[in-house]
What we know:
The protein is α+β, with helices and mostly antiparallel strands. 41% of the residues lie in helices and 17% in strands.
Amino acid sequence: MGISAASTQRPKASTGFEYSFPAIRGIQAGREFYVSMCPLRLIPKIFLFDEDELTPEVRAQRVLNKGRLPALTKYILDNPDDYVFSALTASVDGDMFFDSISDTGPGMRTGQLRIPMDARFLINDGQHRRAAIEAALKENPDLGEETIAVVFFHDAGLERCQQMFADLNRHAVRPARSIGVLYDHRDEEASLARLLSLRCPVFKGYVEMEKSTLSARSRKLFTLSALYYGSHALLQGLELDTDAAAELTQDFWQTVDKAIPEWRLVRSGELSAPEIRRDYIHSHGIALHSLGRIGNSLLRESTTPSKWKKRLTPLAKVNWSRSNTDWEGRAIVGGRVSKSHQNLTLTVNYLRRHLDLALSPEEQRVEDAYMRGER
Length: 375
């Protein structure tokens, strides 16, 4: 992309200078739009984003969630050889001139898109990617010569821009966490969860790999996302290499399995997975996550496997049945298993009490509120 002076034989930009983008022209809903490749170094300079003085009704974008930026920026910086960003979508408040390379045939669709430098560019989709690119460039300027696809629409006013934002996000569906874990090859704990699902006798053949919720008739007992979060909680803060983490995690879940006979009955064919999920909560995500947190505490306190395994023995006395009224308000709300942060903490507290483990100050605060009826 370059910046060129406006030719006297073409419509002039009001400033006399313009951006020139190699582009492809298309049509949607009777309106022309253009697709181009833009160097990353120019993204922060062209696509400005200033929300501070605008109220929601006169903006065409959501407020920038700055909490998302460190993770997005880290993703770019940590993966300079294989990061992937989808196209930005922008509206141009100003004239756009397209010079096709041919008057007939396919060449009519390719050419140069010229936009006056005093035009305003409004991002309809991708403001977090734009902000992450800006932050990444400050740490690694070499990324500036790489490119990202940009889709340009003509700005037809605030109402149209707001509608574009609504339409672009209306049908966006976040993929199930399980399939995200299944396809994530950067996260070592995602790899560990996949390995457990394929090799650990407790889970082999009984883990749903794509969905994060199980249908009433599913023959699976666990979801991959539940196994991921449970194992992540188990290993939180522990300094282990990959092989040691895999060995420890499998050993832990096999020890837990000895305290939960229903899991073994499913594997032997004496009970079905739907029956267990219907009548018990120990295969649900909140249970695996809570067990992982309990295990993490035991691993930090115990110096040998024999010690933490012995301290898990009282798990066999926990009544995991849905009919156990102790779960109401802890793991179950209104007859349904809930995995909110508060319910997770209350479930952990319940298990800690059975294993004679102390509560952290935050866990004690949540427990006190629960006992006062502040649910």
